[in-house]
Design a protein that fits this description.
With 253 residues, the protein is α+β, with helices and mostly antiparallel strands. The strands form two sheets. Strands 1, 2, 4, 5, 7, 11, 12, 13 and 15 form a nine-stranded antiparallel β-sheet that branches. It has a six-stranded antiparallel β-sheet with strand order 3-6-14-8-9-10, with no helix packed on it. The longest helix is centred in the last third of the chain and has 25 residues. It is globular and about 40 Å long.
Length: 253
Amino acid sequence: MKKKIAAAALICAIHLIASGQARAGVVYQTGFENPPFTLGPINGQDSWNVFSGGGTNNVPVIQNAVKFAGSQAVEINAALASGQTGPWRFDASSPSDTIVRMEAEVMLTSSSTQTAWQFAGLTGSLGTFYGGFNALSDGTLQIITAGFPITGPVITRDVWQQWGVVYNFSTQTFDVLIDNAVVASNEPFLNPSSAFGTGLFDTFNAVGGNDKGYLDNYSITGSTVPEPGSFLLLGTGLPALLALRKKSRCTSK
């Protein structure tokens, strides 16, 4: 009887460890639908703000003509923006969320003068950058890390693509994914950060830029990586359980 109780307890412990490994939670997600979003400037809606170097805060808008899914999405018309302009939202992750994934569906339009666009995470409420990327006009990415390395061309204009950045606050590194394909990995944080703060999508708006950027299905999700001791317990517990079962079988013959 004691052996059965011990085996059951060990199985429960293994299940707890496994569930801890897979634990994930939504910090924030939206498809920019109504409610709570209404057509017009996104600034002030559902705690979204707009960064604008030239004071054109009303350029990022909720519209219903172009969207990935649902009936609405965000549009930024670079031709109307004065300087770097785009929406941002502060979403503090839990200290226990060592892995945080920021992703969205994004489409950049082709035009006669294409601008660079940014998808990045910042400390606190629009503090300092810790990681992300700049999508340059030629389709390459400039990774926001020391040295600002450039990738090969991965951005295709006039089609929706999934943009993602996975931040590891334990190792202070991040990965960049386009359509779930890793294009940069284990990039060191540009500045240290202990938790997710602000997500930003914006245009740099080179002089005369006339392309557009669309944002839909934006989400921030957090998860926890188990401590090394949990893996050790799992590794030593399984052989112990197998040995216990084997011994039980031998003594019952």
